[in-house]
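Exercise: predict the structure of this protein bound to zinc ion.
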Amino acid sequence: MINLKDVDEDIRKIEGIAKQLKNVDLLQAVLDLKSRILDLHDDILSFAAEAQELKKKIEDKAVYNLVFDNNVYWNKLPGQKTDGPFCSVCRDRDGKLVRMLSSNLDAQGHYSPQYICPVCKNAVKR
Ligand SMILES: [Zn+2]
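Solution:
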């Protein structure tokens, strides 16, 4: 990656020379170049962040193939046992995969087979 400190040093040297030469056009050209380099550096940082995000998505895709079914997510990878269920609220709101727990009772203690999210308490009938 471009080292801004080195570039800044180089530009300062050229700026110094332009000042010694009292060449206003050269000085202005150096300042324009400096500004363009800073813009390029911002672009590089932005592309790097985007690349990191895409890399994570690709890695997630290899590990997860989430299918929304009966109000919960299931991880269905070819040739593997279906894993889950996972909470749709936590996944959709926070991007987190939270395994739901199986329970035969609702919050009032009545018989009601359901899956419950241990994080957000989302309850879904089994
Ligand atoms: Zn949840």
